[in-house]
Write a structure and sequence with these properties.
25% strand, globular, four-stranded antiparallel β-sheet, 17% helix, alpha+beta
Length: 81
């Protein structure tokens, strides 16, 4: 299973970095919810939904480089810091 470590939102945006390639797809719903469908190199899969009031929302939005309702975008890998 893939997991994101919780940190204060401002610190996450500042320390966010992207690896090369893609680990899945992101889609934004009409209400602004971002859903990530992710996969790992070993074949594990998972889905994570981030609503606008989620403390991780700004970090996810920043990480995928912005997204609009109805849009699908690849999700770059998260760096291991």
């Amino acid at each position: 299973m893939l997991a994101l470590a919780p940190l204060p939102a401002a610190a996450q945006i500042q320390s966010d970095c992207r690896g090369a390639g893609s680990i899945g797809m992101a889609v934004m719903a009409p209400d602004g919810t971002i859903t990530l469908s992710l996969h790992s190199q070993d074949g594990a899969m998972g889905a994570f939904a981030y609503h606008k009031n989620d403390p991780q929302y700004a970090r996810i939005l920043s990480h995928i480089g912005g997204i609009r309702p109805g849009e699908h975008k690849p999700v770059p890998p998260f760096c291991n810091n």
